[in-house]
Design goal:
Distance between the termini of chain A: 45 Å
CATH class of chain A: Alpha Beta
Oligomer: homodimer
Strand order of the largest sheet of chain A: 3-2-4-1-5-6-7
Helix content of chain A: 40-55%
Radius of gyration of chain A: 17 Å
Number of helices of chain A: 8
Strand content of chain A: 15-25%
Shape of chain A: globular
Order of helices and strands of chain A: HEHEHEHEEHHEHEH
Number of strands of chain A: 7
Structural class of chain A: alpha/beta
CATH topology of chain A: Rossmann fold
Largest interface: A-B, 34 and 34 residues
Largest sheet of chain A: 7 strands, parallel
Chain lengths: 221, 221
């Protein structure tokens, strides 16, 4: 039983801190996006498609979180020229709000309009920890299967938007867009749903427009 | 700091309990396999291919662990006729040894030779918790990318065997078998590595033979 009590304390402190992070970013007019998915669902690829489309209008920062390796941070820096930092979680399977705050400080928020946090690839734990982000963007890749919202409920419950990725390979996997949408809706009746492919460009315009309009809505406040 | 101290206590208690589970299963001559991977890497599919090939020679039980849904347990029961139970982890992202023990008791170990535990789809947390299994079999699916051992080190360190799955789609993904092997070897210099496809059958014979010989080695003791 004790572990659950401890966990509740940790989560309640985390939620308090998330309010502080939001207040800090609200004060500076910065929109903060927390990108979550399974390993290899396409987080880095989606960022490498979105950032060049958004960087004429917004000053963009990226926090790459991994347990180990700096491969993604190097790729994003090389491909987009955005301000990027890599954080390592020392084995941890998620980003707490404390880590989020320290990463924002290390990145340096001054002069930025839009910050992406690429969370640890994990459909479970990251969903429990509010990072202080304005938007939780969850990716579900076609090869994983359309049943994942049934098995990993919280991740889809906390999503403001879900992007189904790698739709170009749907014909060779047993994946139904209709079932995916139905399963997402079982967990979440308001999240925006996008069907995307980084390969053929499907849905990237729509996802870009959504992030653009949400960012503008915040920074114009 | 406190969270790490607590975690150490939990892990040390867990490791003690894993010894008890091993002693219990050793006494009964049962081989216990812990199957771990990202969500959607093919754990259930691999089981549905292996079990029919092994069930003439071994009496097989399956523990299906999920946060929610009983889809996998129903599929395994329907497709293989093995003795199956579904356990739900109440949100937890991994199976502790206590859960493993309770699941073994609920399944009923009498009369079995070989038990598979299908762990929660997660490349991080399940690796930290010894379930008392004789073998950690880790799946890495081609669509996830060949870099995953770099980013999720512990999972590949604790593996006794790694099966690369969905190799039939390698031509359409940016996945190099050579890099995958190199990256697995960075984490683990002794794990067996299999390249498999449930679709075209590649590597399934070899994986079956490996599990068969390890099972025989134990139950003949």
């Amino acid at each position: 039983m004790e572990i659950f009590t401890i966990k509740e304390d940790i989560l309640s402190r985390n939620n308090e801190q998330a309010k502080d992070v939001r207040a800090l970013l609200d004060g500076k007019g910065i929109f903060y996006v927390n990108l979550m998915s399974s390993p290899g669902a396409g987080k880095t690829t989606v960022l490498s498609k979105l950032i060049p489309r958004l960087s004429d209008d917004f000053r963009i920062g990226v926090i790459e979180a991994d347990i180990d390796s700096d491969k993604d941070a190097l790729a994003i820096e090389r491909e987009t020229g955005a301000r990027v930092i890599q954080i390592h979680t020392a084995g941890a399977c998620h980003i707490t709000c404390q880590m989020s705050l320290e990463a924002l400080q290390a990145l340096g928020t001054d002069g930025l309009d839009l910050i992406f946090l690429e969370n640890i690839g994990n459909l479970v734990c990251p969903a429990e920890f509010d990072t202080g982000a304005d938007m939780n963007l969850v990716l579900l890749s076609v090869p994983e299967g359309d049943d994942k919202p049934l098995k990993y409920p919280l991740m889809f419950e906390v999503a403001h938007a879900v992007a189904v990725t790698k739709t170009d390979v749907a014909p060779i996997f047993d994946f139904s867009f209709e079932n995916a949408e139905k399963n997402i809706r079982k967990r979440n009746d308001s999240a925006k749903i996008f069907f995307t492919s980084a390969l053929n460009g499907k849905g990237i315009d729509e996802l870009e427009q959504y992030i653009r309009s949400e960012t503008v809505r915040k920074i114009k406040k």
